[in-house]
Amino acid sequence: DSFKNMNFDLKRTIDHLLSKSNRSSALDISQ
Predict the structure, then answer these.
(1) Cβ-count burial of 1 within 10 angstroms (0-12 exposed, 13-18 middle, 19+ buried)?
(2) How many angstroms separate the CA atoms of 16 and 26, rounded?
(3) How many CA atoms lie less than 13 Å away from 16 in the CB half-sphere?
(4) C-alpha–C-alpha distance, residues 31 and 25, integer Å
(5) Closest Cα to residue 13, out of 30, 24, 1?
(6) In whole angstroms, what is the distance from residue 30 CA to residue 21 CA?
(7) In terms of domain of life, where is this protein from (predicted)?
(8) pLDDT at position 10, please?
(9) Cα(3)–Cα(23) distance, rounded to whole angstroms?
(10) Cβ pair 29, 18 in contact under 8 A
């Protein structure tokens, strides 16, 4: 459960960082 939350946090962070430069890449990672 904690690992699942950590993974979600990581993906959310990466998504946030990528969305600044490339929205499409951020969307790909979120899926």
Answers:
(1) exposed
(2) 7
(3) 6
(4) 10
(5) 30
(6) 15
(7) Eukaryota
(8) 92
(9) 26
(10) yes
CA 7/CA 23 separation, integer angstroms: 20
**pLDDT (tens digit, 9 = 90+) per residue, 1-31?**
677 888 889 999 988 888 776 655 556 665 5
Is the pTM for the entire model greater than 0.70?
no
Q: What span, in angstroms and rounded, lies between the C-alpha atoms of 10 and 1?
A: 14
CA distance 13 to 17: 6
